Amino acid sequence: MDALVTGTLLITMDPTVRGATGDLGIVGDGAVGWTDGEIAYVGPADGVNARDADRTVDGDGCLTLPGLVNAHVHGRHTVLRGAAQDVPEHEWLSRSLGPVSAHATPEDGVVGAELTAIEALASGTTTLGEYARDVGELVDQVYRPLGLRVVATERLTEVPDDRSELSPDEPYPLDREAGETALARADDLFASAEEDPLVEPAYGPQALDMVSPELLESITARARAADRTVHMHVARGDREHRQVAARYGDGETTVSVLDRMELLGDHLLAAHLHGATPDERALLADAGVRMVGCPSSVAAIDGAVPPIAEYRERGGTVGLGTDQAPGPGGHDAFREARTAAMLAKADRGDPTAVDAADVLALATLGGARALGIADRVGTRLTREARGCRGL
Ligand SMILES: [Zn+2]
After folding, report:
1. Counting runs of H as helices and runs of E as strands, what totals does the chain give?
2. Hey, what domains does the chain have and what are their CATH numbers?
3. What pLDDT digit, counting tens, does each position of 139-183 carry?
4. What is d(CA 236, CA 275) in angstroms, rounded to the nearest whole number?
5. How much distance in Å is there from the Cα of 377 to the middle of ligand 1?
6. Which residues of 106-143 are buried (b: 16+ CB within 10 A; e: fewer)?
7. Ligand 1 center to residue 3 CA distance, Å?
């Protein structure tokens, strides 16, 4: 094999690994080897001959674990770190982030993605659920050259960037042509990513209030036909709630509209969900909708706690994401995992809620399942032994 990490404390997230203990599949004196970027050995150090490896790495004092999965990220905004904070939720997008990001160039967006990638790799993250306009540019210029795995979500929206003059209850104007142009960009991305094992494209209708029903139906039909993911912000909070009520009628919510349009199902990855009711979340979990919770972002922008613990209890699939840097500040997946646990404990008044093993599962396997790539990612090690990090 090309290389072997020996003598390391190994967390495989796979209890079936030989010599492993507990649900996390921990091996006290473990080894991991790889050949051509693929895992060739995982297990106890005494089960492999170091002389079989071209190169050995002494893992003593290191914890080696699967690459973390950051399932929801807007990398283009990272160059605006800290620039949109401490404002009411319904003003954040249109009157805080929007006016600032209007001054950012596409090149700034690429620099933002580079910063995101650096933070990801420095925090042991090997997979990003990137969500951006023209995401193919970020894949080509940043993520592919760095060898990061990316679920590349093309943002699809029909609303203008500048909505600062609209009141919260005035429905955004929709531009159908912009939606079709964005959908064509997404289709190009699907075609170009076909041969790349590290790039998985996804459709990203921004939110129910930002796309027409026609566009959403056509996206969903494409996703269902080709077994692709629709990655969408769902029930984020007051701003979205008021827009949906203004467009679809009093009493309507994102979940009620999606349900009536028969757009719920396991093709859907829903970011956030704290604006949904418990009954709606039960409906979503039963329908197989996957969830990504972004604790730092939701705390900073909405003053809320994502329903991570509840959604897991309902049998739903949950991953973690850092979302965006202008509000909460960054993309360190270990910090996000810690924040997820802390907020869940405080929210529930229960220090046993979302324990260390739970949060590690959320940050690895949970993220991989949420992004629909758990057949390749989330247990043992992904791609190569990058995650060696002293604790
Ligand atoms: Zn987001």
Report:
1. 15, 13
2. 3-64 (2.30.40.10), 68-371 (3.20.20.140)
3. 999 999 999 999 999 999 999 877 777 888 899 999 999 999 999
4. 5
5. 22
6. eebbbbbbbbbbebbbebbbbbbbbbbbebbbbbeebb
7. 38
